[in-house]
Amino acid sequence: MRRVEITPGQQFGVFTVIREASRSGEKRMVHCRCSCGNTRIVRLGSLRSGHTQSCGECGYLSYKGKKKSVSAWSKEHKINESTLRSRLKNMSLKEALEKK
Predict the structure, then answer these.
(1) What pLDDT digit, counting tens, does each position of 11-20 carry?
(2) Which of 50, 51, 64, 87 has its Cβ near the most Cβ atoms within 10 Å?
(3) What's the pTM value of the predicted model, to 2 decimals?
């Protein structure tokens, strides 16, 4: 099988390749930056196939030192999730959670 060439800056969905990382057994690994700013080392095959699509933390929002999903914030503050998502389009998480 022919070796797939990757270059820094190459895009795979939300990931941007930073550099090739050391191998994990026989699997090629790539150091990438997600669009949210997090960095991850992922299998090249998983990136190319679309199996790995994000860092897993993209949907999390920070407030008062806690990092949770929109769903978790809505449950904690007893707000309908769709209402919270709608509020987040034009206000910060703090404003959206404190609005009555």
Answers:
(1) 988 889 999 9
(2) 87
(3) 0.60
